[in-house]
Every structure is written in C-alpha cells, then in structure tokens.
Design a protein that fits this description.
heterodimer; A: alpha/beta; TIM Barrel; eight-stranded parallel β-barrel; three-stranded antiparallel β-sheet; 13 helices; about 15% strand; B: TIM Barrel; five-stranded parallel β-sheet; 8 helices
C-alpha cells in the first residue's frame, strides 16, 4: 500500500505504535515525564552531541502561490537567483564559520532553479564541504538521481499540511498544488539514492495533533519502506513573512515540546532537527531533550551571508517586474523572519555550556553515489 | 604487544576534552575513531579535529568506516585514512540500516577480502554469526568483532549463545563489540572467553565518563581472571543426596 492510501485510511486503521503516539500527544502522560524519557533516549542513541548545519538560499524566485510563504509569487518582493560564483562566496563564508554541512534552499522556478543549476551548485559547494543536502521543489526520480550523483546526500521536503483539503486552499497556483506528487517525494528520493530524508509539517496551518499523527504515520511508513535512509523530522513553526499570513491554528511551546518528545519516544533512532525559527531560550532548553541537529547563524534570503547578488535584485510580483528600484544596500527578501539571530560561534559556545559537543563534520567524501 | 583488554570508541562524548581525559585514565591502548568525523584532507581542520585529542604515543588509533553503506565505500574510506597518515588498521563497519546500525554480512566479507589483500589489519564488526566469523577468519581478518546487542542499546549479551559458539571455534581473537551497557556486561563477555571488549556509549554518556571507564576496566580484568581460572560449571539442577537409581544397587 502506498503512503497516500495509508494517509487516507488513517482514521480507520492505525498501528499500535501510532495509537500510542496519539495518546502521548493528548496529555495522558505529564510533559515533564515525557521530556525525561525523551532526553534519556536521545542521549543513549545520539550521545551528548549536536550536529550543526546552515541553510544556503540560492534563489527566492517562485512560480507558486502559497498563502503562508514569503516567496509566494503574488508577493511583491525583491528576488534574485545567485550565480555560481555567488553561491561559492556564500558557501565560503559558511565554511569559515565552521560549517561542514550545508543545506541548499530555493523557491520553485523551472527556469531559474532547474535541476542542472542545482547540480552545478552542489558540485561547487561540495569542493568545500563533505555534506550537501537540498530543500527544493519536488523532482522526478531521474532528476533526483543526477542530484545524488553530483554529491548531495540529503533531501528535505515539508508536506506543509497532511490535510488535502487545507492543502488545496493554501496552494492556489503553481505546480505545488499537486498534493500527491509532493507526498511521494521521500520515496522518489529514496529510489534515487538519497541517504538522509527529511520530513515536516508547517506548524500553524492544520490542527497540530492531527498533523503530528499524519507525520508520525509518514515516518513509520518510511522506516519500513526506505530502510537504508536516515529519516529526519523538522519542526517549522510559522514565522512572520512577506504577505503577513497569520497562523490558522495556534501551537505554543509546550505543544511543540510535547510533539518533539513524543516523536523521540516513539522513534528513538530518527533525527530531529530544529531551525532558527525558534528563539534562543527555547532552542537551548529543547536541545538536550530530543534534538539531534540544528541550524545556526542562518539567513533565509539569497545572498544573506555576504551580500552576494544585491546588484541584480528585481522587485517582482506574479512574475512581472515592478518599477521601484531597490536602494543600494537592500538585500533580497527573506522567506521568513528568524527568531534566533545569535552568531554561529555563540550558538556553539552555548551548546558546550549545556554539555553538548557541537559536531560540524559528520560525513565523508568517500560516501557518494547512489545507495 | 597490548596489555589492556578494553578497547574504546570515541563518539558521543560531551566534549573532546572529556573524551581525552577518559582515554587517559582508562588504561586502554586501542581506540577507534569514526573517519567521517575526522579531517582526512591534511588541512588540520579545526572544526574536525577529533584526532588531535588522541595521543598517538599512547594509543593505537583504529579508524572505523562507520557511515559506509557498502564494501566499496568502506574500502575507499580505508585508503583515504592511510593517505592521511593513519595506521593501516581498520575496523570495518558497514551498516546500510541507519536505524539499528546492524552490519551487512555480505558487504563486510567483501570489504575484508579486498582490504586484507591490500595489506590492512582488518577488524570486522559483525552480527554474532558463527559461520560468518569463520568465513572472515578464512579471508584473513585479524580478529572478529561480534555484537552483544545493537550499537548504543545498552542491552548487554543478547547474543550469548552465538557468542559462545564463535569463541569456541575461533582461531583469531574475538572482541565483543556493541551493546555493552554496564561493567557487568563486559565482565560477562570476558568470562565467556572474549579476548577483549569494545565499549563506547555506556562510557561516553555516563555522568562521569572517567569514573565509568575505570569501572569497565576493572570489570574486564575481573572477567578475564575468572575465565583464566575457570569458572565452576553451573549446574542446571540440584544433585539429589539420595540417588534415584539407588535401588539398582540393592542386592536382591
């Protein structure tokens, strides 16, 4: 049975694992007890370490209209696609900060962000760091294969919401409208040989417990069917962005903590990833409880680290250029506003204070090619 | 010639300084380092400097291929390690399954065959499979390293029955690796006749790793001493003081 069929039947058929996970979300177990169990399991399986990575936005051009996203086509924002030298300049900056693991991020645009563009970006960055992963629009298995051959080891695709009706309301134009095509991305990625596969629901769209249950079902499915890939889950909570979309559903930090700990207790060996969407105090607090990988010092706009690409910014809306000329020092518009703006070194120092060893390099050039 | 029968892993510590301090007091002489965490480029990368924290005068570093999915990746990684100046020893660790990190027997045998031919001292990490252990011996492995239970599980010698067969049949040293969560587990492995044990998680995540490593070292010595002296056979049942067959001796 494909995952989409399982998702459709989630109310009728749930494994014992999922039922237990659902109970953990309801509050039947006190949060403190859940957190202690989660912290213990995380320490056992991952030790006292935290992997660090940074996103590298290469383009904020996008053909989709997604109501919550700053890059949405109908937002009048400053857009740019970095050229290869600019991508290298950004990567060099991140390498100097210590990063040996870089996540390439881009909007969806068949012209500006074509697979061959991504391949070249990967090859250039991979000369500097061993671990390169991607968070880009869904591709075909064949396209993913060329990406893997270029040296990328990980792929992250957030489903945004696992509720198809809500999905349809939020994604009103562009190829991203295709719910099922996006949902099957992890399996296509696995077939193409990606070693790490990242999932997530954008928290703040659907009712969080419902989204969490679907997400856990997805994890359970992939652990069985894609057994050679390391499965990771990220927890993006909606942040303010261009378009000023307001969260449809509230999810507070206690809820988020419960979700993270419940996932850890249910799936002790999966990777759990936290971005700079969350504020420093929360990140420091949750770090030892279940998280295994964190971004730090992040920018969510292309050229954000070095100012690369500023000379060719274009203010566009629905693909059409607007006549306003950007000020000289203006940068591209970010995807969202981050909450943890601490410098990378500061985050690493804080992790050490908490008793976690920041791990920068955890991958080798010798691992490459399809599985 | 090595004196300690305790081998240590270097992952999962709260800092590289704590790791170094733990190694120092452990009495261990062999330590294994995951190559994916080390800098093999020769650039002394300060963000991948785990090898700087292992004193090569005191310890033999055995690189491990953790993260490799198949034989060709493990072989490539081993060659890179030698180019980077590491000893021509390698702990072959091939686990395509990132969840339980269970070793792939087919790829492990393949990698061992290639690396032995290239002159490596090969220490393969395997499931507790007696036939595979013999096949690896035939291929020229220096030791075999069967698991007690899955990596990081702290469940001890769940494979005891298979380990007993491996030890009984082996012509190379048997090093019990993985899953040893308490000093008593290590002692039990030594009592079975293991030549050594390899411990990582239980020490690295302890509240006081230097203290825990000393506890493991003591357990290893105790278990070995008991093995050498010979443990009395455990009896499955009580022996009756009035034999049940006594009637046969009664003269008619």
């Amino acid at each position: 049975m494909s995952f989409i069929e399982q998702l459709e039947n989630l109310d009728k058929r749930q494994s014992a694992t999922l039922r237990r996970f659902g109970e953990l979300l309801t509050g039947s177990v006190p949060l403190e007890r859940l957190a202690q169990q989660s912290a213990l399991l995380t320490r056992q399986y991952f030790g006292r370490t935290m992997r660090l990575f940074a996103p590298l936005y290469v383009s904020n051009e996008c053909v989709n209209i997604c109501k919550y996203c700053g890059f949405s086509r109908d937002n009048a924002i400053l857009r740019v696609t970095l050229d290869y030298e600019q991508v290298e300049a950004e990567a060099r900056f991140l390498v100097a900060q210590g990063f040996r693991s870089i996540l390439i991020v881009a909007g969806e645009h068949p012209k500006f962000v074509a697979p061959n563009y991504l391949v070249e970006c990967i090859q250039r960055i991979r000369r500097m760091v061993p671990s390169v992963s991607l968070e880009v629009a869904p591709l075909t298995v064949e396209e993913y294969r060329t990406i893997v051959s270029a040296g990328a080891e990980g792929l992250t695709v957030f489903q945004e919401t696992y509720d198809p009706e809500l999905y349809a309301r939020l994604h009103t134009a562009g190829p991203k409208k295709d719910f099922a095509w996006r949902l099957a991305c992890p399996e296509r990625a696995y077939e193409a040989g990606f070693r790490r596969i990242g999932l997530g629901a954008l928290l703040g769209l659907g009712e969080w417990r419902r989204e969490a249950l679907s997400l856990a079902a997805h994890v359970e499915y992939l652990l069985k069917h894609c057994w050679k890939s390391h499965i990771t889950v990220c927890f993006p909570r909606l942040r303010p962005a261009a378009g000023a979309f307001q969260p449809l559903r509230h999810m507070d930090e206690r809820d988020l903590t419960r979700l993270i700990c419940a996932l850890r207790v249910t799936f002790p060996q999966i990777g759990l990833v936290l971005s700079t969407r969350e504020h420093p105090q929360f990140r420091d607090g949750i770090a030892p409880l279940g998280i295994t990988s964190m971004s730090a010092g992040a920018h969510t706009e292309p050229g954000g680290y070095t100012g690369a690409g500023r000379e060719k910014l274009r203010l566009t809306q629905c693909g059409k250029p607007l006549t306003v000329i950007p000020a000289e020092d203006e940068s591209a518009t970010p995807q969202f506003i981050i909450s943890d703006s601490r410098a990378t070194a500061e985050v690493a120092a804080r992790l050490k204070e908490i008793g976690l060893d920041p791990v920068w390099k955890d991958w080798e050039y010798a691992f490459e090619g399809a599985a | 010639m090595f004196h300690s029968r305790l081998f240590l892993g270097t992952g999962k510590f709260s800092s590289l300084t704590v790791m170094r301090d733990t190694l120092t007091v452990s009495g261990a002489e062999l330590v294994t380092v995951a190559l994916r965490r080390a800098d093999l480029s020769g650039k002394d990368d300060p963000f991948a400097d785990i090898l700087q924290y292992v004193d090569r005068e005191k310890f033999l570093i055995i690189p491990n291929t953790s993260g490799a999915m198949n034989a060709s990746e493990a072989v490539r990684l081993s060659r890179l390690a030698v180019e980077a100046g590491l000893p021509k020893w390698v702990k072959v660790e091939i686990h395509p399954d990132p969840r339980y990190l269970l070793p792939d027997p087919v790829e492990t045998l393949k990698a061992t065959e290639i690396l032995v031919k290239e002159g490596f001292t090969v220490l393969p990490y395997i499931n507790a499979d007696p036939v595979l252990a013999k096949r690896l011996e035939d291929a020229g492995a220096a030791v075999v390293m069967p698991l007690g239970s899955p990596i990081g599980s702290n469940r001890g010698l769940e494979t005891r029955a298979q380990l007993e067969i491996i030890i009984e049949q082996a012509t190379v040293p048997v090093i019990v690796d993985a899953g040893l969560g308490a000093p008593s587990h290590a002692a039990a492995a030594m009592e079975l006749g293991a030549a050594a044990v390899l411990v990582n998680t239980a020490v690295a995540i302890a509240n006081n790793p230097p203290l825990m490593v000393r506890a493991f070292a003591a357990a290893v010595s105790a278990g070995r001493a008991a093995y050498e002296t010979g443990l009395p056979d455990a009896r499955r049942s009580a022996s009756a003081t009035s034999p049940l067959t006594g009637f046969l001796e009664v003269a008619r």
